[in-house]
């Protein structure tokens, strides 16, 4: 059984990460369903937890072998067969607000031993603007955002590794060694291929006063990315940008989301203050980006683009950043507003240097951002 978690969410996220490593898609809503199922059926029996995961996390029968392998690794750390069925284990089925087919939500509800789980609230909140939420809704959305996980995008390195048949080069050293060992007979041409390493992700979060309705939700997203790097393998760096630059990677590494957010806000002395994007981004490029953090990385700027600083400096800095990074993604919470146009001076200045310009106002838009960061190919739009 896995080590005792600090929460069902963290515990279940470990299984979701193992599934994603095996190319099994696990949307956040499926993970939420699994967490709720654990709360209903308990987490003490292997078969019970296995069946709950099978019912809630899988979308295709073709993923069953990958699920069984991931579950075995997650539960006891060794590969093995799926747990035997248990007649006493209740099935877990999902019920939605809109009925499907000819059934009804209340059909034999009292006689069926299965637990029906409803997640209409989570679905309803998926596209709600963070700036328009009640405190209770914000608490729920922050919990959902904390479950988002990044999927690593690998890049080729100069170092190479042995390959069986798919290598793009002949490995002369291994081939010669094998030839010598076989008394001069070339039995096979050994091949090699480049080693793969996950690309770095850099998050630059605007914490100025104009971003106050969104900054805490975006910091939750950053915390999920930074604190989850040990599970996902994605190296994530996070910085706050306002009137000064503040590195928050250490603070956001704290596993507890609330504690991490407290540490991050305490460390950011200009939280909800002014903004000088040109100055702070220039400091990032000079002190952190050019020396290595931004080189070949996915750089994400989360900002509404309002800037009181020098537009020429911002233009020059964004041009330098675009040359360093694999791509620059700009996440603007205002982009989803009706009639929005990128007319703010900072946004208009930065946009020509941006590869992707996306929304960032809701839980759903941050889910989409995580998916975008996991894409191996991209286009400019």
TrEMBL record:
<dbReference type="InterPro" id="IPR036465">
    <property type="entry name" value="vWFA_dom_sf"/>
</dbReference>
<dbReference type="Pfam" id="PF05762">
    <property type="entry name" value="VWA_CoxE"/>
</dbReference>
<dbReference type="InterPro" id="IPR011195">
    <property type="entry name" value="UCP010256"/>
</dbReference>
<dbReference type="InterPro" id="IPR008912">
    <property type="entry name" value="Uncharacterised_CoxE"/>
</dbReference>
<protein>
    <submittedName>
        <fullName>VWA domain-containing protein</fullName>
    </submittedName>
</protein>
């Amino acid at each position: 059984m896995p080590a005792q978690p600090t929460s069902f969410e963290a515990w279940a996220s470990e299984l979701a990460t193992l599934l994603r490593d095996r190319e099994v898609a696990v949307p956040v809503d499926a993970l939420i369903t699994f967490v709720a199922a654990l709360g209903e059926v308990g987490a003490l029996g292997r078969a019970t937890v296995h069946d709950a995961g099978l019912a809630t996390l899988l979308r295709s029968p073709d993923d069953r072998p990958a699920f069984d392998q991931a579950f075995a690794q997650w539960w006891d750390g060794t590969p093995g067969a799926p747990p035997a069925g248990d007649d006493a284990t209740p099935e877990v089925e999902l019920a939605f607000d809109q009925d499907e087919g000819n059934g009804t939500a209340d059909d034999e509800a009292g006689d069926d031993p299965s637990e029906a789980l409803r997640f209409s609230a989570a679905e309803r909140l998926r596209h709600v603007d963070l700036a328009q939420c009640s405190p209770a809704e914000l608490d729920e959305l922050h919990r959902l955002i904390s479950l988002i996980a990044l999927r690593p995008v690998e890049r080729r390195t100069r170092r190479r590794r042995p390959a069986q048949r798919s290598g793009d080069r002949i490995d002369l050293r291994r081939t010669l060694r094998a030839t010598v060992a076989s008394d001069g007979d070339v039995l096979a041409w050994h091949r090699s291929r480049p080693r793969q390493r996950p690309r770095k992700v850099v998050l630059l979060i605007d914490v100025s006063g104009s971003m106050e309705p969104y900054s805490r939700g975006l910091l939750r997203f950053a915390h999920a990315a930074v604190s989850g790097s040990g599970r996902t393998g994605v190296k994530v760096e996070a910085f706050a940008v306002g009137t000064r630059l503040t590195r928050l990677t250490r603070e956001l590494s704290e596993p507890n989301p609330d504690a991490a957010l407290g540490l991050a806000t305490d460390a950011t002395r200009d939280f909800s203050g002014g903004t000088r994007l040109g100055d702070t981004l220039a400091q990032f490029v000079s002190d952190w980006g050019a020396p290595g953090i931004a080189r070949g990385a996915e750089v994400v700027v989360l900002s509404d683009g309002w800037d009181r600083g020098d537009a020429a400096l911002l233009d020059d800095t964004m041009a330098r950043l675009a040359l360093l990074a694999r791509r620059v993604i700009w996440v603007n919470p205002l982009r989803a507003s009706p009639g929005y146009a990128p007319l703010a001076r900072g946004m208009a200045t930065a946009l020509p240097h941006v590869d992707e310009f996306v929304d960032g106002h809701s839980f759903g838009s941050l889910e989409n951002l995580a998916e975008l960061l996991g894409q191996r190919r991209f286009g400019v739009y």
